[in-house]
Amino acid sequence: MRKAWALLGVYLAYMLEYRAELFLWALAGALPLILLGVWTEAARHGDFPLGPGEFARYFLMVFLVRQATVVWVVWEFERDVVEGRLSFRLLRPLDPFFDHLAAHVAERLARLPFVVLLTLLFFLLFPEARFQPEPLSFLLGLLLTALAFLLRYLMQYAVALLTFFSERATAVEEVFFLLYLFLSGTIAPLEVFPEPLRTLALLTPFPYLVYLPAALLAGQEVRLFPGLWVMLLWGVFFFLLWRLLWRLGLKHYAGHGA
Amino acid sequence: MRLEAVVLAQDLTKHFRVALKEESLLGTLRHFLFRQYRLVRAVEGVSFAIRRGEVVGFLGPNGAGKTTTLKMLTGLLHPTRGEALVAGHVPWRRERAFLRKITLVMGNKQQLIWDLPAMDTLRLNAAIYEVPEGEFRKRVGELAEMLGLEGRLHQPVRKLSLGERMKAELLAALLHRPEVLFLDEPTLGLDVNAQVAVREFVRAYNARYGATILLTSHYMADIAALCERVLVIHHGRLLYDGALEGLLARFAPYREVRLVLAKPLSREALKAFGEVREAEGREARLLVPREGLTERVALILKGLPVEDLEVKEPPLEEVIARVFQSPKEVEG
Question: Structure pTM?
Fold first, then answer.
């Protein structure tokens, strides 16, 4: 526990050194707010499963879920391996997985004020998005957001470990990101997907990273099962992949640049 | 009484596969489509044992295999072949108990968080290595005093001088009080004063805590000041393992005679008395074989207008350079 607090404390101090950048990073995640404008406008004139207010709420929650689940470990890890800085992390009796995880959690805390600010601004611009959340589904949504962050982190960490073998794991992540963008519900809620595509999407890990927590937070009616089982299975899969790639990767590590 | 071996390396070997690439566009295309590799034998069958509390110098030119050996001994690299035991652990298993007993300081790399005061990294390390709060304060106070770093630990690392940063690196690396220290070029790039300070600290640390130290350095003064024993590695193979004096006797079968003459003499005139290393004005430096040194000195005193004469060991740098220039000769 002391380890966790110390890690959080130091990384929070580190993140706060970059206040201006944090604001810009938070702003850079404003894609859902742009899409909100597009979809609410479309909903006013067309026939969609969600109304303008529902779209607005959904995309606001997508914005918040994405702010809470943003992960960049693959870039950090790749740089660590290429520049040889991983050696320092390997010398410590702490798995770098937890080291990076603490940095991510600390960044979340440091980013919070900016996210609150942007949300308030958003409510001002889109009054139709204001709503009274239903406590139970909202709490469940928060819990799922935390789980979505862990799954996203685990997925990207497993991809990051490919750096041991190719030194450019970020290329793999870019492909993953494309799938993430389309299948996670970031561009459009799954309700507007054609049926076969929606069924297929729900078998991948991506909708559980954004759509499910966002829909719950927005108070939409969603079926939790079997989705949660699928999410759990992907979690187990990426956990095992992490452990396997870690074991193989360390044997492969050449420690260049250090 | 035979002291316990803390670092053991047996036939330690590391080969790397390195991709080859020719210049030009064609070479780049070929590299992309049919990548070819070359096997680099970074370390080849290295064996040695270091006893508890010893300070051993690890010498070799760039690319000789020093750092690769250190990386295997610290568990960063898996060897291609061979065994190692450090503080009772196989390093590349990376057991927590092992990681708590060792440290690696790399002069060209830093673990301190650049934008924060060193104290933050120290706190982080204390938590990771589970050093209790009271003990943490005591150790930081003690080490900061030994390193002359008091008052500097609350400044952002980027504001420290290179020497102070290296000292802070040492502090961070030693906070968990490791038994075995692997120091890879700890004085790299430091000015003479900072070099001396780091050297003195390493000596004091070894004396106070009985730590075992394996040190690589390009500065012979570091090795000469700290190590009674040296390992010499070249082309991945161990060429020498023994006392520093033994290294001079084996690889430098000559001594240096420094002369101050009554009048300047040409190199030609000095040649008959030894290998002329330097002849500038009235001063000269000759290399003379150890065997028959007395006779040769008598000859110099008789044949040259000597005002002052001094017999010394040749500079360590020169000896080492000779070793690395003619590896085959010394290997045999």
Answer: 0.83
With a CB cutoff of 8 Å and minimum separation 6, the contacts of B123 are A6, A9, A10, B136
pLDDT, position B171: 92
Chain A residues lying within 8 Å of B120, measured CB to CB: 10, 13-14
Q: Does B116 touch chain A (CB under 8 A)?
A: yes
**In A, which residues are within 8 Å of B77 by CB distance?**
253-255
Interhelix angle A2-16/A96-125, nearest 10 degrees: 50
- Distance from the Cα of A2 to chain B's closest Cα (Å) equals 6
Which residues in A lie closer than 8 A to residue B102 (C-beta atoms)? Answer: 91
Tell me: do B150 and B42 sit in the same domain.
yes
Q: How many domains does chain B have?
A: 2
Same domain, B28 and B69: yes
CA–CA separation, B330 and B252 (whole Å):
11
Does B138 lie at the interface with A, CB-CB under 8 angstroms?
no
Distances in whole angstroms, Cα of residue B291 to Cα of each of B255, B296, B311: 10, 9, 14
Residue B232: C-alpha distances to residues A17, B49, B322, B330 (Å): 45, 14, 12, 11
Q: For chain A, say whether B106 makes contact (Cβ under 8 Å).
A: yes
Residue spans per domain, chain A: 2-252
d(CA A164, CA A170): 12
Strand (E) or helix (H) holding A168:
none
Task: Confirm whether B324 is domain-assigned.
Answer: no
What's the pLDDT tens digit per position in B250-266?
777 788 899 999 999 88
> Is ipTM beyond 0.85?
no
Domain that holds residue B306: 254-312
Of all residues in chain A, the one with the smallest CA distance to B127 is A3
